[in-house]
Amino acid sequence: MKNVTSFLFVLAAVVLFGSSNVQALTFNPFKRVARVQNNTLIIAGNIIASRLLADLAQYHSKQPILLISPESDGNARIYYAPARSRATESNQDSFMDLVNFINPKRIVVLGGNDYVDTKFVDMARAKYPVIILDSNNWSQNAQSLGELLDIRGLDSQYNEYKANIDAVYNQKDAK
Prior knowledge:
By secondary structure, this protein is of the alpha/beta class. The protein has a single domain (40-174), classed as Rossmann fold (3-Layer(aba) Sandwich). Helices cover 46% and strands 18% of the residues.
């Protein structure tokens, strides 16, 4: 009798603790577990201030980034950086193809015309809502982006990392 009660106790414990992860018990092949939706696409110039802010926002929000890197011949290279895989490079002609592939609900552009050319903003604005954070004060841009993406402390983290980067560059210049 004692073996039967201990067996029932162990069986009840296995059932209780095993059923806490209900996702493991479903056999639906169309169910997506823990997929991050691309609600916001972050577009930034491949320049330290905007790139740092975009990377920090991506780290916290898992949203994709398009980095635009101008070249000397007037063209631009586009780097698509999804949250969980390697970045891919393409040319400026495929900009809208990439944006349509990502299919965001909104687009946040970090920096003004100095960082992201207006032709890219205009192309995106034709189909998607675009928010431009173009203050000259990047701490304000970080605060605004943090509020927009609901990331607490993004501005203080940005300021800390930016100060570290500036310190490294100041040390190199002093040598």
